[in-house]
Amino acid sequence: AQKVTQAQTEISVVEKEDVTLDCVYETRDTTYYLFWYKQPPSGELVFLIRRNSFDEQNEISGRYSWNFQKSTSSFNFTITASQVVDSAVYFCALSEAFMEYGNKLVFGAGTILRVKS
Amino acid sequence: KAGVTQTPRYLIKTRGQQVTLSCSPISGHRSVSWYQQTPGQGLQFLFEYFSETQRNKGNFPGRFSGRQFSNSRSEMNVSTLELGDSALYLCASSPDREGDTEAFFGQGTRLTVV
C-alpha cells in the first residue's frame, strides 16, 4: 500500500526565513510520481511540482527547491526567504506511474505553514 | 485556458437528502478525479473517471457515486447524506497522456450536512 507522511503538522516562521517541509513516502512500486501541492485559504490545490521516481535530480524554481532522495524515501520542499504569501497548507502526494492504473493521488496529512511579517 | 470549474461552491443539505456536485475539467483533459477533504481524514480519493468509465475507486460506501459525460464533465452524487459527509469535495482533471499526469484542481464544493 502507498503511504505519505508529513510529520510536521504546523510550522511558523518569520518572513525571510528559510523553511523546509518534510515528506516521507512508502510504496512497493518501482515507478511512481511524487507531487507537492499548495492549498491557500480559498481551497483549491495549486500544483507546484511533479517528480518521476527515476529522476533524483534536485530542482529549483525561484524561491522553491525540492530534494528527492530515493535512499531515504523522502521528497522535501524548501522555501527560501519565505514571504507572507507563502502561508498555506502544503501537501505532498504520491501516485502510480502507469496510465492503465488510473490517476489516484495518495496525500499526506499536510503541513500548515504560517509566515509572519 | 479556463481551469477546473466546480459548482456549486457551497451547499447546505439535511441528513437523509441526496446531493449532486458538478465538475467541468480543463478543455482537452479526459480524466476527472474526485477527492473528499475533511479535518479528520484529510484528502481521500473517491473515484476517477476516464472516457465515461470509472477507472479507479477509493474506499467509500456505495452512497457515493459518480459519472462522466461524453464531454468529460463529471458529476458525483451522494445519497442518504450523513453528518460525516460534511466536507470539501475537490475535483481534479488530468490530460492523462503518458508523461503528463499532473492533476489540476478546482476550488471545490463545500458541503455542509445539518
Textual characterization of the structure:
The complex is a heterodimer of chains A (117) and B (114). Chain A has 117 residues and is mostly beta strands. Chain A is 0% helix and 52% strand. Chain A contains no helices and 12 strands. In chain A, strands 2, 5, 6, 10, 11 and 12 form a 6-stranded mixed sheet that branches. A 4-stranded antiparallel sheet of chain A has the order 3-9-8-7, with no helix packed on it. Chain A has a two-stranded antiparallel ribbon with strand order 1-4. The mean pLDDT of chain A is 92. Chain B is 0% helix and 53% strand. Chain B is built from no helices and 11 strands. In chain B, strands 2, 4, 5, 6, 9, 10 and 11 form a 7-stranded mixed sheet that branches. The A-B interface holds A 33, 35, 37, 42-47, 50, 91, 95, 97, 99, 101-110 and B 31, 33, 35, 42-45, 48, 50, 55-56, 58, 88, 90, 92, 94, 96, 98, 101-108, 110.
Secondary structure: elements and pairs:
The complex is a heterodimer of chains A (117) and B (114).
Chain A: E1 3-5, E2 10-14, E3 19-21, E4 24-26, E5 32-39, E6 46-52, E7 59-61, E8 64-69, E9 74-79, E10 88-96, E11 106-107, E12 111-116
Parallel strand pairs in A: 2-12
Antiparallel strand pairs in A: 1-4, 3-9, 5-6, 5-10, 7-8, 8-9, 10-11, 10-12
Chain B: E1 5-7, E2 10-13, E3 19-24, E4 31-38, E5 42-50, E6 53-57, E7 64-68, E8 74-78, E9 87-94, E10 104-105, E11 109-113
Parallel strand pairs in B: 2-11
Antiparallel strand pairs in B: 1-3, 3-8, 4-5, 4-9, 5-6, 7-8, 9-10, 9-11
